[in-house]
Design a protein that fits this description.
The chain starts with 17 loop residues before the first strand and ends with a helix. By secondary structure, the chain is an alpha/beta fold. About 40% of the residues lie in helices and about 15% in strands. The structure holds adenosine-5'-triphosphate (ATP). Keywords: ATP-binding, Helicase, Hydrolase, Nucleotide-binding. It comes from Canna indica (Indian-shot). One of its GO terms (molecular function) is RNA binding.
Length: about 475
């Protein structure tokens, strides 16, 4: 078990994982709030000694891993050469992936050396490409068996990950004669019967699955994981805290396959109590003992060029306030997050808040964006239609938190919290649906519509996530 910390005080040394952190000394250090968690405090200390980051890699047992390069370091190709098949590297370049992002720069040496990793980095930082490149390095293209499994929390995220994996798997110019690499999407609402026959006849190398569909296939013995070399669980904190998924996921991690036969990669922008999580990974045998925690930029859980604002208004004024904000901001595209309907309101036959906001905007919004809806209670076909439309036009999406995890819609410039999220982690993921163009410093914004009483809750999120919110005054919006 690797037990090395970079720049952390001696009192945390016995904890069971290697800790890597970004080498940037953050401006946010000056904003350490009283009341932040102790773990966060230790995280704050780490970037002060950036030079040690390389020694962490060297001493932490990362086989063959090299120190993280400087920002002007190697290209993605140079980092992956010899480990990731040439055809995939060529496809990555054709898709515009040439310079690694911070998380890719820090994680690829470890991922490509076969280490079990917990990828813990900002939303929109490029974790998907990092784990997909390691998937392609672990599998044997052309060997007809399921060698990589990527588990995702929602159908929409599954569609997105499958799309990127298929684009990387496609044969680039000059490789037309080579064996194709197949990627199967095993997602809720899909045609499982057809997939069952496909799995039997010609198993794909890579499967992207939601937990529900995956379990059905495993229980029916339609999917076999004996040849699985790499298991990725995306949005792992969400999955392991969802009562619906946790049992199946634990079984997948410990019964359907074992840590010795696979590389395990767990990814998320938020891993609450990460020291405890790393400990559990080893104790519960979800990962090998020398699992590495790659925690990029721990003091800046959200991009610095994200502008946070709030407006205080009465509940009954919120719809008009939202409209005023939209007219003032003129988003390129935006997402309006609305709380889920309560069981009580469902029982009373009331319409969900998403419908109220949607109807209001469809009647009152005069801008040129398409107003769309995505919510948990929609059937899979309606969800698929909305999701497809989002990719084709500029939009105002009214949504519950279903869109808050993993959705990659880079044209989103504005987020509105029509209802406050339930927790700081939910705030972080909602906010993370914007600022998703790596290396771009364009300012995007998150605006929360709150009552006087909710100011205290938002303040708590600010303390926990270390950001500052600017107040917008109602009078100035209507002026
Ligand atoms: N090296 C790169 N160069 C250019 N663009 C990149 C690179 N890596 C990733 N991207 C782009 O960055 C965007 C965000 O990446 P990705 O979806 O992997 O983020 P993430 O870290 O998984 O975020 P989240 O935690 O919200 O799921 C995507 O549009 C992706 O195409």
């Amino acid at each position: 078990m690797a037990c090395l910390y970079v720049g952390a005080p001696a009192c945390v040394l016995p904890l069971p994982h290697v800790f890597l952190s970004s080498s940037r000394v953050p401006k946010a250090l000056g904003r350490l709030y009283v009341g932040a968690l102790a773990t966060r405090f230790f995280s704050l200390l780490t970037p002060v000694v950036p030079a040690n980051a390389s020694s962490a890699l060297a001493c932490g047992g990362a086989d063959g891993a090299e120190a993280p390069p400087s920002p002007a370091g190697p290209t993605l190709r140079e980092m992956c050469q010899g480990k990731v098949p040439e055809r995939v590297l060529q496809r990555a370049e054709e898709m515009g992936y040439t310079i690694p992002t911070d998380v890719q720069r820090q994680s690829l040496p470890l991922l490509l050396s076969g280490k079990d990793c917990v990828l813990h980095a900002q939303t929109g930082s490029g974790k998907t490409l990092a784990y997909l490149l390691s998937v392609f390095s672990a599998i044997d293209i052309g060997r007809s068996s399921v060698q990589a499994l990527i588990v995702v929390p929602s159908r929409e995220l599954g569609i997105q990950v499958t799309k990127v994996a298929r684009m990387l798997a496609a044969r680039p110019v000059g490789f037309e004669m080579m064996q194709a690499c197949t990627v199967m999407a095993l997602l809720d609402g899909g045609m499982l019967k057809r997939h069952k026959s496909w799995l039997k006849a010609e198993p794909p190398e890579i499967v992207v699955a939601t937990v529900g569909s995956l379990c059905q296939m495993l229980e029916k013995h339609a999917l076999k994981l004996e040849a699985m070399r790499i298991l990725v669980i995306d949005e792992v904190d969400f999955m392991l805290h969802s009562s619906k998924q946790v049992y199946a996921l634990r079984k997948l991690l410990t019964s359907y396959s074992t840590i010795d036969s696979r590389q395990t990669v767990l990814a998320s922008a938020s891993i609450p109590q990460h020291n405890r999580f790393m400990y559990d990974c080893v104790q519960q045998k979800w990962t090998k003992n020398d699992v590495v925690h790659i925690h990029v930029n721990p003091v800046e859980p959200m991009p610095l060029h994200l502008h946070h604002k709030y407006v205080i208004c009465k509940k009954k004024e919120r719809l008009c306030t939202l409209l005023n904000l939209l007219q003032r901001d003129k988003p390129k595209s935006g997402i309006i997050f609305v709380g889920e309907q309560s069981e009580k309101s469902k029982r009373l036959g009331q319409p969900p808040s998403t419908t109220l906001v949607l109807d209001f905007l469809q009647n009152s919004y005069r801008g040129n964006l398409e107003v769309l809806l995505l919510d948990d209670d929609m059937n899979f076909n309606a969800r698929a239609t909305s999701f497809a439309e989002l990719r084709q036009r500029e939009y105002l999406l009214v949504s519950t938190d279903i869109s808050s995890r993993g959705f990659d819609l880079p044209q989103t410039t504005h987020i509105y919290n029509f209802d406050l999220p339930r927790s700081a982690v939910d705030y972080l993921h909602r906010a993370g649906r914007t600022c998703r163009i790596p290396f771009s410093k364009n300012t995007c914004s998150v605006t929360s519509l709150i009552t006087h009483e909710e100011r205290f809750v938002l303040q708590r999120f600010e303390n926990e996530l270390m950001f500052e919110c600017e107040e917008l005054f109602l009078e100035t919006l209507t002026a």
